[in-house]
Design brief:
By secondary structure, this protein is of the alpha+beta class. It has one domain: Electron Transport, Fmn-binding Protein, Chain A (Pnp Oxidase, Chain A, Roll). It is globular, with a radius of gyration of 16 Å.
């Protein structure tokens, strides 16, 4: 009978300082959620990092939001574009869905990624600020 190999335990606590630049730079995150059939769904997302929390803006009519409401477990990876062997993966749980109808939060995201206000929406459109508490992570590269 083959030996059972135990998967290594993912580190918990704050993400490694060696990879904080990946969270602060305007790099897309690859957000994984779990769909109704218990299959992973991955989407590129803009995000903000505040302390040990991941902040996302999600429209209400998306599969991504439905997945998160049904199963709040998420994982997100961020890849270093100049070195595909350097990455950070975060895992956690959604702790809040905050409904908003102004572009204030979306503009914060847009400033990180484009340096300007968000131009693909208008005040009055419903969105959710989703806050994810990170409980474990893994990384590779220097």
């Amino acid at each position: 009978m083959p030996a059972v190999v135990q998967a290594p335990i993912m580190p918990s606590g704050p993400s490694p300082t060696s990879h904080l630049d990946l969270l602060e730079r305007p790099l897309l995150g690859q957000l994984a959620t779990v769909d109704q059939r218990n299959r992973p769904q991955v989407n590129p997302v803009w995000f903000l990092w505040e302390g040990d929390r991941l902040l996302l803006s999600i429209k209400p009519d998306t599969v991504k939001l439905r997945n998160l409401r049904a199963n709040p477990a998420v994982a997100m990876s961020i890849l270093e574009p100049e070195d595909s062997h350097r990455y950070l993966e975060l895992r956690g749980t959604v702790e809040s869905f905050e409904r908003f109808t102004t572009l204030a939060f979306v503009n914060k995201l847009a400033h990180k990624y484009t340096g300007a206000d968000f131009t693909a929406g208008v005040d009055g459109e419903e969105r959710y600020k989703v806050t994810v508490a990170i409980d474990s992570w893994t990384s590779a590269g220097n």
